[in-house]
Design brief:
This protein has 119 residues and is mostly beta strands. Helix content is 0%, strand content 51%. Strands 2, 4, 5, 6, 9, 10 and 11 form a 7-stranded mixed sheet that branches. A 4-stranded antiparallel sheet has the order 1-3-8-7, with no helix packed on it. The protein is globular and about 40 Å long.
């Protein structure tokens, strides 16, 4: 069973960049689609981007499009979210999640990492 652990969150200033990491343990990560979500307390979780197992398909949703880049390195069992030009409204808990290509439901989640952007 794959387990995920995010890192890289912290407190930054508006306009800064940050790279989040998602490291997997267990076998099979290299066959999973990986996504990044974020959640502001009291609001619904929001899908930001996802990348398939081979990195041949990458999709960005509207929320941070143009300011984020999702990537992965299967040799390191890791996925990343590069975030640029951060804004105070980007303050949230950020999660990575994974799913099989045969399902649309993300069943594997990390514990999240908090990003705080100060103005």
């Amino acid at each position: 069973q794959v387990q995920l652990a995010e890192s890289g969150g912290g407190v930054v200033q508006a306009g800064d960049s940050l790279r989040l990491s998602c490291v997997a343990s267990g076998r099979g990560f290299d066959r999973l689609t990986v996504a990044w979500f974020r959640q502001v307390p009291g609001k619904e979780r929001e899908l930001l981007a996802h990348i398939n197992w081979s990195s041949s398909r990458v999709n960005y949703l509207d929320a941070m499009q143009g300011r984020i880049t999702i990537s992965r390195d299967n040799a390191l069992n890791a996925a990343y979210l590069q975030m640029n030009s951060l804004k105070p409204e980007d303050t949230a808990d950020y999660y990575c999640a994974a799913r099989s290509e045969f399902t649309s439901q993300y069943l594997i989640w990390g514990q999240g990492t908090r990003v705080t952007v100060s103005s």
